Amino acid sequence: MKSFIQLILMFIIAIVARIREVYYSRERIKRIQDKKLRSLVKYAFEKSPMYRRLYEGIDLNNFDLKSLPVVNKEYILRHLSDSLTVRGISKDDIILFAHDPDAVGSYFKNKYVLSTTSGTTGIIGYFLIDQWQWIVQKGVEFARLLKHRLSFHYIYKYTVKTKLRWAMIVASEGHYITYLIARLTPKQAFYLSDIRIFSITNPMNRIVEELNEFKPHYVHSYPTFLEVLAYEKLAGRLNIEVDFMSSGSEPFTDRAKEVIKKAFKGVEVVETYGTTEAVCLANQCKFGKLHINEDYVIIEAVDDDNKPVPDGVPSKKVLITNLINKLQPLIRYEIRDSVIIYHNYRCQCGSPFAVIEVQGRSDDTFYLMTKDGHFRAFPPIPFEALFLRIKGLRQYQLIHEEQNHLVVRYVAQDSRDNERIEREIRERFKEFFNNTDVGDNISITIEESGEITRPPTHQKVRQIFSKVKPPPNIV
C-alpha cells in the first residue's frame, strides 16, 4: 500500500512540476523558490546542530542567501551526524552501511536513501534523503526529463499498445545515485514499464548481447558510453532501434553527438545536469537548452571567493541549495563545476527557468587497439567504478600516455597499503581487459604519487584523460 501511495505521489509531483514549467511566470517561480528557501533555512537551524552553529547570530527572518556561510563536502563529512535534521543516526552507522556490498540498492534503516560520491579530492561524500523527499525528487525528474513525451499519443503507445522498455546502463556496484534512481522505484511502476538495469562494468559484448535481447525503447547512460554504443551499432553488433536517449554525469562532446546521430536515426537525445547531492539541477528542452529547475534548486555561479559572476561569464565553481532535501539540508553547498548561467534568457520553448551551460565535466574516452589490430572505444565510467572498488585508495589518475599504454597514478590513505593497492590495481585491470578483445595487448605503469592536484587551467583534477588522439576508424 505504501509503495502504491508513493507512486501516486510521484505522478502528482510530476504533474505539478510540468504545470509550473508550462504555465507559471518567472516571477511566480521566484516567489516559490524564495518561500522554500526560507522554510528550509529555518528548518535546518531548528533541527540540525551543524546549521544551528553555522547560523548563530543571523536574523533568519530577514536574511539574504549570499549572507549565509558556504559548506563543502569536507565540512559535511566532519559534521556528518550533526548535518542531519533527525537524531539517532551516527557517522559510523552511515559509513558501515555505505561500505556493505549487500546493502546496495536497499533503504538505510528502512526509510532513508543513502548515496555516496568520491570526487577528485579523494574524499567520499555520504548523502541521505528521506524516502518521501526521494519520491518528490523522482517526480520532478520524471516530468522535466520526459516533458516532450507526456502526450496522449506517447502514453497510449507505451501503456496500451506495448510496455515501455527502459534500459539503465549505469555503475551498479555501489550506492551510486543513478543506480538508486532506477532501483529504488515504487514497485507498481514496474507493472507500467519494464525497467532493466545493466551494469556498465560488464564486458561490452555481454552488454550488447543483453540489449539485443531486451530491445529497449529508451536508454539512459553516460554520454561517453552512449557514444560507444553508437560505435557498436555502426559496426553491426548492436541491433536495437531506440526512440529516446537520456544522459547525465558528463557533457556531450561534439564527436559523441555526431556518431550517435549517425548510428541511431531519428532518436531524441536529452541531456540532464545533476549531482549526487542534488539530482534535479537542470534538464534540456527541445531547443537544446539546459534549464535550471529553479522551483526545486538554487544554483549560484561564483568565483574562487564565492562572489557571484555575471551572466555569460564562466564560474570557478557553483553553490547548490537543494530545496527538496530536508533530512540533510545542503545550503550553499560547494561543487567545483564551472558553469555559465543566463538568468534572463527567454528560450523558444517558453520555459520560465534560467538557462545553464556546464563547462568541462567530462573525462576522456580511450581508443585502444584490439589484438586483431582494430580500435575499440572504452568510456571512462567503467574505469572509475574499477578504482572505487579498491579499498584504501584516496586519489587516482588514469592516463592513456601512448597507444595502448596506460599510466596509473595513485595516493593511498595509508602508505603501508601501497603494495596491496598496486597488486589489486594490476589484477583488476588484467581481469577487465581479458574480458575484452584487447586482452593482453595493453601495458600498464603504476606510480605512487604525492597529492594529485588540479592544473591551473582546469576546475577539477583530470582523473581519466588521454594524450592519444582518436583514430579515424573505430569498431
Give descriptors for this structure.
alpha/beta; 3 domains; four-stranded mixed β-sheet; 14 helices; 23% strand; globular
Short description:
The chain has 475 residues and is α/β, with parallel strands linked by helices. The chain has 14 helices and 20 strands.
Can you describe this structure?
The protein has 475 residues and is an alpha/beta fold. It has 3 domains: 218 residues, Rossmann fold (3-Layer(aba) Sandwich); 123 residues, Rossmann fold (3-Layer(aba) Sandwich); 101 residues, GMP Synthetase, Chain A, domain 3. 33% of the residues lie in helices and 23% in strands. The protein contains 14 helices and 20 strands. Strands 4-3-5-6-7-8-9-14-13 form a 9-stranded mixed beta sheet, sandwiched between helices. A 4-stranded mixed beta sheet has the order 19-18-17-20, with helices on one face. Strands 10-11-12 form a 3-stranded antiparallel beta sheet, with no helix packed on it. Helix 1 crosses helix 6 and helix 11 packs across helix 12. The N and C termini lie far apart (49 Å).
The coarse silhouette is: globular
- Could you tell me the CATH topology label of the largest domain: Rossmann fold
The beta-strand count equals 20
User: Can you tell me the number of structural domains?
Assistant: 3
* Computed structural class: alpha/beta
Largest sheet: 9 strands, mixed
Strand order of the largest sheet: 4-3-5-6-7-8-9-14-13
What's the CATH H-level superfamily name of the largest domain? ANL, N-terminal domain
Q: In percent terms, what proportion of residues is strand?
A: 15-25%
Low-pLDDT sequence parts: none
